[in-house]
């Protein structure tokens, strides 16, 4: 429980935590950012991680010369592309049965409502979903999984995957680089982080409550 609370504290105050981490551990901060972005995009059980806020804050730290801008962009691009690729292959391995069958390991952690919503979005927009979803918390995590489940060809998936990662990483990191240290934005950076986390957590919470209400109604 203490570890979980510490992790939540780290995420909620990522703007301050990242600065402290850089002072104490230096270049290891790149590994931490890589891991967070990889987990958010690569594992369907981590849709709540604040990828958007993290990219923006990373750009702000690069502007103050505490991180190298080009190394940051390169690592985040690799994390975003490889994370989505892993997620895609997990979806391919499980297949369409994920929509029809209760898989015990997944049911405990999977937000089925968000998964179905992403699937419906994918059915409507096809490969563009992989690009658009980069900017939609929660959907970002499920989009490559759904593409794999739907058996999108790997080559076509990678085309949209790389394009989406380039736009997402470059846009948010450079926004942080050019605007993250403006006094007004810096003052309310924690609010920006909270909004980003809220956008990711609220749909998950609604899905969990909906699932609980259905169970209670059947009992």
Automatic annotation (TrEMBL):
Which keywords appear in this protein's UniProt record, sorted alphabetically?
Answer: Cell membrane, Membrane, Transmembrane, Transmembrane helix
Keyword Iron attached: no
> Where is it localised?
Cell membrane
Q: Which Pfam family name is an example for this entry?
A: VTT_dom
Q: Is Cell division there in the keyword field? A: no
Reading the lineage from the top rank, the first entry is Bacteria
GO CC: one term? plasma membrane
Chief localization class? membrane
List membrane-spanning regions.
29-49, 69-90, 129-147, 159-179, 191-210
Q: Which residues form the VTT domain?
A: 49-177
This protein's membrane topology, according to the annotation, is:
Multi-pass membrane protein
Q: Which family does it belong to?
A: Belongs to the DedA family.
Q: What is this protein called?
A: Membrane protein
Give the organism, scientific name.
Caballeronia zhejiangensis
| Origin organism lineage | Bacteria, Pseudomonadati, Pseudomonadota, Betaproteobacteria, Burkholderiales
């Amino acid at each position: 429980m203490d570890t979980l609370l510490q992790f939540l504290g780290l995420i909620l105050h990522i703007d301050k935590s990242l600065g402290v981490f850089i002072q104490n551990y230096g270049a290891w901060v790149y590994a931490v950012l890589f891991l967070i972005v990889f987990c958010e995009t690569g594992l369907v059980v981590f849709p709540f991680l604040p990828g958007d806020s993290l990219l923006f804050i990373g750009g702000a730290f690069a502007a103050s010369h505490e991180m190298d801008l080009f190394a940051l962009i390169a690592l985040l691009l690799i994390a975003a592309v490889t994370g989505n690729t892993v997620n895609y292959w997990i979806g391919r391995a499980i297949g369409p049965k994920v929509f029809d069958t209760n898989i015990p390991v997944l049911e405990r952690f999977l937000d089925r409502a968000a998964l179905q919503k992403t699937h419906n979005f994918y059915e409507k927009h096809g490969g563009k979903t992989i690009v658009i979803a980069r900017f939609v918390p929660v959907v970002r995590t499920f989009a490559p999984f759904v593409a794999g489940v739907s058996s999108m060809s790997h080559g076509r998936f990678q085309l949209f995957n790389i394009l989406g990662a380039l736009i997402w990483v470059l846009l948010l990191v450079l926004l942080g680089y050019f605007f993250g240290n403006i006094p007004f934005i810096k003052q309310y950076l924690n609010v920006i982080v909270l909004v980003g986390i809220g956008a990711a957590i609220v749909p998950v919470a609604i899905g969990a409550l909906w699932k609980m209400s259905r169970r209670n109604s059947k009992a």
